[in-house]
Design brief:
The complex is a heterodimer of chains A (122) and B (208). With 122 residues, chain A is an alpha/beta fold. Chain A has a single domain, classed as Rossmann fold (3-Layer(aba) Sandwich). Helix content of chain A is 45%, strand content 20%. In chain A, helix 4 links the parallel strand 4 and strand 5. Chain A starts with a strand and ends with a helix. By secondary structure, chain B is mainly alpha-helical. In chain B, 66% of the residues lie in helices and 0% in strands. In chain B, helix 3 runs parallel beside helix 5, helix 5 runs parallel beside helix 7 and helix 6 packs antiparallel against helix 7. In chain B, 42% of the residues are buried. Classes of the chains: A alpha/beta (122), B mainly alpha (208).
C-alpha cells in the first residue's frame, strides 16, 4: 500500500484529505507543520507528500527546500495553496514541488495528481 | 545535520552585549550592520525605543536571517503600539510566505491590540489578508470571535476565506452558528470541502 504524508496546520483539511486518500486505498500519516514533517520524513519512507504553503514554524516552501536540499527525500510532493497566481506556483516548483493544487481541492483533482505522481493508472 | 536553524539565544547574548553603545541612535545603526549577531542584539535592545518601531518594520521586510527576524517580531510584539501593529498588518501583504506566517503568529500574541483592527482586516479587499486575519482569530480569545466568523461565512464571497472561518467555527462555534453554516453549505453547494468542513463544524456544535 502506498504511503502518503499530509502536511497542513488545519486539522479539518488534514481530515478531508485523509478521507479522500484512505477511501482510494492509500495509507496516510499527518504532520501539523514543516518541522514535524521533516522529523517524520527522517523516520519513515513515504511515496508522496501533500504540503500546505502557509504553516507556522516551517512553511511548505521551507519544508520542501530542506527535504530536497538535505537530500532527506526526493519522492514527489504536491503543494496545496489558496494562492492561484503564477508566481506562487513557480515558487512552489522552485522549492521542489512536483505538482500544485489550489484550495479548495476537489477529490477528483487530488486523486488524479496523486496517481499521476505515484505512477499509477489514472 | 543542520536542516533546522537554531533559535536565537537571547539569555547568552545578554551577557555579551555592550551597554555603552545601547542608545537608540546607535542601535538603529547596528540594525543595518553586516554582522547578523550585531543586528540581532540591536533588534532586541530597541524594545526600549518605541519611536524606532517603523525602522524595525522596514528592517523586517528585508532581513534574511531567520534569527534576526524572530527577534524583531518579538520586539515589535513587546512594543505592541499602533505603529508596530500597523507594520505587522502591512507584512501580511508580503510575498514572503515565511514572513507572513511569522507575523500571524506574532499577532496572535497581541489580542487586545489586534482586536480593534480586526473588522478592517476581515473587510480587506485582498482575500489572502482576510484569510490571515481569520488565522489570527484562532487564538484571539475575544468575545466577538464567533460573531466575526459568522459574519465571514455569511457575507464573504471568497470560498477560501469562508473555508478558513468554518474550520475555526468548528472549534469555537455555538448554536448561533448553525443556521449560518447551513446557509453556507447551500451557497457553496458544489464545493466538497465546504460541505465536509461545515458538516464537521455542525456535528461538533451539536455535540456541545
Amino acid at each position: 500500500m502506498k504511503r502518503i504524508l499530509i502536511v497542513d496546520d488545519a486539522a479539518t483539511v488534514r481530515m478531508y484529505h485523509r478521507n479522500i486518500l484512505e477511501s482510494a486505498g492509500y495509507s496516510v500519516d499527518e504532520a501539523m507543520n514543516g518541522i514535524e514533517a521533516i522529523e517524520k520524513a527522517l523516520q519513515e519512507a513515504f511515496d508522496l507528500y501533500i504540503v500546505d504553503v502557509n504553516m507556522p514554524k516551517l512553511d511548505g516552501y521551507g519544508f520542501l527546500r530542506e527535504l530536497r536540499g538535505e537530500n532527506i527525500s526526493q519522492v514527489p510532493a504536491i503543494m496545496v495553496s489558496t494562492e492561484a497566481a503564477e508566481n506562487d506556483q513557480t515558487a512552489a516548483y522552485r522549492a521542489g514541488a512536483n505538482g500544485y493544487l489550489v484550495k479548495p481541492v476537489k477529490p477528483v483533482q487530488l486523486l488524479t495528481h496523486v496517481r499521476l505522481l505515484i505512477g499509477e493508472t489514472i | 545535520m543542520a536542516f533546522i536553524k537554531k533559535q536565537a539565544q537571547p539569555s547568552t547574548e545578554q551577557t555579551q552585549s555592550t551597554p555603552e553603545t545601547r542608545d537608540c541612535q546607535s542601535l538603529l545603526k547596528q540594525l543595518s550592520s553586516n554582522d547578523s549577531t550585531e543586528r540581532r542584539w540591536a533588534a532586541r535592545d530597541l524594545v526600549e525605543c518605541p519611536e524606532c518601531a517603523n525602522a524595525l518594520m522596514q528592517r523586517l521586510k528585508i532581513e534574511t536571517e531567520n534569527s534576526v527576524r524572530e527577534v524583531i517580531l518579538t520586539t515589535l510584539t513587546r512594543m505592541g503600539d499602533p505603529v508596530a501593529i500597523a507594520g505587522m498588518v502591512d507584512c501580511l501583504r508580503s510575498e514572503d510566505a515565511a514572513l507572513r506566517n511569522e507575523v500571524v503568529e506574532a499577532m496572535k500574541q497581541l489580542p487586545l491590540e489586534v482586536a480593534p483592527m480586526m473588522l478592517g482586516l476581515l473587510a480587506d479587499p485582498d482575500p489572502d489578508v482576510r484569510i490571515f486575519a481569520v488565522n489570527v482569530l484562532e487564538s484571539l480569545c475575544h468575545p466577538e470571535v464567533e460573531s466575526w466568523l459568522i459574519s465571514v461565512i455569511t457575507y464573504d464571497a471568497h470560498v477560501n476565506v469562508c473555508a478558513t472561518a468554518v474550520d475555526l467555527l468548528g472549534e469555537v462555534g455555538t448554536s448561533n452558528a448553525i443556521e449560518p453554516l447551513e446557509q453556507l453549505k447551500a451557497r457553496f453547494n458544489a464545493e466538497p470541502y465546504i460541505q465536509f468542513a461545515a458538516d464537521l463544524a455542525l456535528r461538533r456544535i451539536n455535540e456541545i
